[in-house]
Design brief:
- This protein has helices at about 15-25, 40-50, 65-80, 100-135, 170, 175-195, 215-220, 220-230, 240-250, and strands spanning about 5-10, 30-35, 55-60, 80-85, 160-165, 200-210, 260-265.
- By secondary structure, it is α/β, with parallel strands linked by helices.
- It has a seven-stranded parallel β-sheet, with helices on both faces.
- The structure holds nicotinamide-adenine-dinucleotide.
- Nicotinamide-adenine-dinucleotide binds near residues 16, 35 and 62.
- Nicotinamide-adenine-dinucleotide binds near residues 63, 214 and 217.
Length: about 270
């Protein structure tokens, strides 16, 4: 098998599943399906295999550091991880004055801390591998004062992170103090990771989906959906494939010189 591997979190259904399918079909990647729902993960793995690519399911709650460590270890055993798409996310909506601390913490822990855990674990491995490559190419001077061998970023193999934020991070959204805070945090953290990791040729970018038809939005009342759609210049909800298209760009050679940005995929919706 071609060994290029993408880790996609929350890939059991919805946007994550759409992303996994597109990366397998159009970028020829093997996929590590990460989710907490074993039934949907098994179905996702079958979908990827039916395309002719390899896939494994790794059950992992992204908000748990130990789960993430073990998931990342399995992914690196599976093949050469070139890409991580941090897509897993949840909502627990209520108005500020009613929001519980538990719902605040849960959303922040999954949507934001989960991305921190995964980026730290994956970048740690990418950077160690990069340092070994540099030392092999130009052996470091020995001794206690020896400094790290520094190479131009382009010396290292390109690695990529794509984080899924939300359009509501721009202007806020009623009932989503926890969610909007988490999604704005994702953008700021991605920009920092992009700056810190650029020297190792690791790109980090964000996508801000608008209003996308998935099980997450299917649970909203029809009236609320109609109200949102009326605000969208392109006059329809987005589909998981719409988001997957932007992920594909940020996962391909075409975006080698793109890092630290966010792409809005929202049908013109401007919160
Ligand atoms: N649907 C939208 O309109 C919309 C808009 C903007 C941003 N987003 C973001 O896109 C991402 C995907 O959304 P979706 O609509 O496909 O949601 P979804 O609820 O349909 O799917 C999310 C998936 O993540 C998994 N998941 C939940 N908690 C997890 C955890 N702790 N660890 C691992 N996996 C976990 C779920 O099991 C599920 O398979 C989320 O980050 C969401 O915030 C969605």
């Amino acid at each position: 098998m071609d060994n290029k591997v993408a880790i996609v979190t929350g890939a059991g259904r919805g946007i994550g599943l759409g992303i996994a399918n597109k990366l397998a079909k159009e970028l020829d990647m093997n996929i590590v399906i990460v989710d907490v729902d074993e039934v949907s993960m098994a179905d996702a793995v079958n979908q990827i295999k039916s395309i002719g690519k390899e896939a494994i399911a790794v059950k992992c709650d992204v908000s748990k550091a130990a789960d993430v460590q073990s998931m990342v270890a399995k992914a690196f055993e599976f093949g050469e991880v070139d890409l991580v798409v941090n897509n897993a996310g949840i909502t627990r909506d209520s108005m500020l004055l009613k929001m519980s601390e538990a719902d605040y913490d849960l959303v922040l822990n999954i949507n934001l801390k989960g991305i921190f855990f995964i980026c730290q674990a994956v970048c740690g491995r990418w950077v160690s591998a990069a340092k070994k490559l540099a030392e092999a190419a130009a052996p470091a001077p020995a001794g206690p004062d020896a400094k790290e061998v520094k190479m131009e970023p382009s010396f290292y193999p390109k690695k990529r992170i794509v984080n899924i934020s939300s359009i509501v991070a721009k202007g806020g959204n009623i009932g989503q103090a926890n969610y909007t805070a988490s999604k704005a945090g994702v953008i700021a953290m991605t920009k920092t990771i992009a700056k810190e990791m650029a020297r190792y040729n690791i790109n980090a970018n964000c996508i801000q989906p608008g209003f996308i038809k998935t099980p997450m939005t299917d649970k909203m009342p029809e009236k609320v959906i109609a109200k949102f759609v009326a605000e969208i210049p392109l006059q329809r909800m987005g589909l998981p494939e719409d988001i997957a298209g932007a992920v594909k760009f940020l996962s391909s050679k075409d975006s080698d010189y793109v890092t630290g940005i966010t792409i809005e995929v929202a049908g013109g919706l401007n919160m």
